[in-house]
């Protein structure tokens, strides 16, 4: 009976999530037009932070319960999913996903830098408060630089003053709230099922909660492609990886130190993250787009990662 109820929770929350994301994508497009800034900028800043909130909530909750290893596994799993599964799915739908924007803006290089920094900081087996503060400062500095590069703050403020964006902001935040609630339902259902199946917390963080908290990004990516806003996908992906690696890990580590050498986490997850990052870089740089063959390769890597982590937990 419990299994059936959790499956119904997953199904119902997924249907709500799909509808909410549709409104969310439309509000993002209208906000970018109203503020006279590119949808890529909105996706990198607003959408990336918004869709990373589930990871942040999981991180804060796990840290308060002194189970921060769950947050670390969740971030690793989410980033691997972002660099493989989440870019591959819309690319398969659209045949080719344009990737020039992340190279013109150099955001891909900053993404790589932040991932490497977080891995280096974790080499001693712990992400402590100082490490967390460093990651948070890095995110703040980069975000300020991004805003200044993309559009002057004064121009944004003037746009807010000149144009009535209240309605779109309301739709944005209401749909975001529904997305977060639906994602929470999906995550809770998945965790309950995993408990019934007796899976370890490290594996749960790397796979089940990682996919659950990445559902907003997955839904946003697919909806963006269907609405012909392919650039938004890349902005959300690199922005979410940066937010997960700095903001989410930083907040979690400041609240409670993360034991990155916990036996529930294998070194292989870090290796898979580096491989995913390398393939993502090679594929997105090669032709200025991501084609179906490359997307299949990324999907294969993700499924190999999940299978490997599943069999090594026993």
TrEMBL record:
Coiled coil: none annotated. It is a multi-pass membrane protein. The keyword Manganese does not apply. The chain crosses the membrane at residues 6-25, 37-64, 76-95, 107-126, 132-148, 169-191, 203-225, 237-259, 265-283, 295-312. It comes from candidate division WWE3 bacterium. GO terms for molecular function: calcium channel activity; calcium, potassium:sodium antiporter activity. GO terms for cellular component: plasma membrane. Pfam families: Na_Ca_ex (PF01699). This is Sodium:calcium antiporter. It comes from the Bacteria. Residues 7-147, 168-310 form the Sodium/calcium exchanger membrane region domain. One of its GO terms (biological process) is intracellular calcium ion homeostasis. It is found in: Membrane. Its main location: membrane. InterPro entries: K/Na/Ca-exchanger, NaCa_Exmemb, NCX_ion-bd_dom_sf. Keywords: Membrane, Transmembrane, Transmembrane helix.
């Amino acid at each position: 009976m419990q299994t059936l109820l959790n499956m119904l929770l997953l199904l119902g929350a997924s249907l709500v999530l799909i509808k909410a994301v549709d409104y969310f994508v439309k509000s993002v497009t209208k906000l970018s037009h109203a503020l006279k800034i590119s949808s890529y900028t909105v996706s990198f800043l607003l959408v990336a932070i918004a869709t990373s909130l589930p990871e942040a909530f999981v991180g804060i909750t796990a840290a308060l319960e002194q189970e921060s290893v769950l947050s670390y596994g969740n971030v690793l799993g989410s980033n691997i999913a972002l660099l493989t599964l989440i870019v591959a799915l819309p690319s398969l739908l659209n045949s080719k996903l344009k990737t020039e924007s992340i190279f013109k803006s150099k955001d891909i290089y900053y993404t790589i830098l932040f991932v490497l920094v977080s891995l280096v900081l974790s080499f001693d087996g712990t992400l402590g408060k100082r490490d967390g503060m460093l990651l948070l400062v890095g995110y703040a500095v980069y975000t300020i630089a991004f805003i200044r590069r993309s559009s002057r703050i004064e121009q944004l403020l003037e746009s807010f003053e000149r144009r009535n964006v209240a309605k779109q902001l309301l739709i944005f935040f209401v749909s975001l709230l529904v997305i977060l609630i639906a994602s929470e339902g999906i995550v809770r259902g998945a965790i309950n099922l995993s408990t019934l199946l007796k899976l370890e917390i490290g594996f749960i963080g790397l796979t089940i909660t990682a996919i659950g908290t990445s559902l907003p990004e997955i839904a946003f990516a697919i909806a963006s492609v269907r609405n012909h806003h392919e650039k938004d996908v890349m902005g959300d992906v690199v922005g979410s990886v940066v937010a997960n690696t700095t903001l989410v890990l930083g907040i979690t580590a400041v609240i409670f130190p993360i034991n990155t050498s916990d036996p529930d986490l294998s070194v292989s997850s870090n290796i898979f993250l580096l491989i995913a990052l390398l393939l993502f870089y090679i594929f997105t740089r090669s032709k200025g787009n991501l084609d179906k063959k490359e997307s299949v390769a990324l999907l294969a890597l993700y499924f190999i990662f999940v299978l490997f982590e599943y069999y090594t937990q026993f």
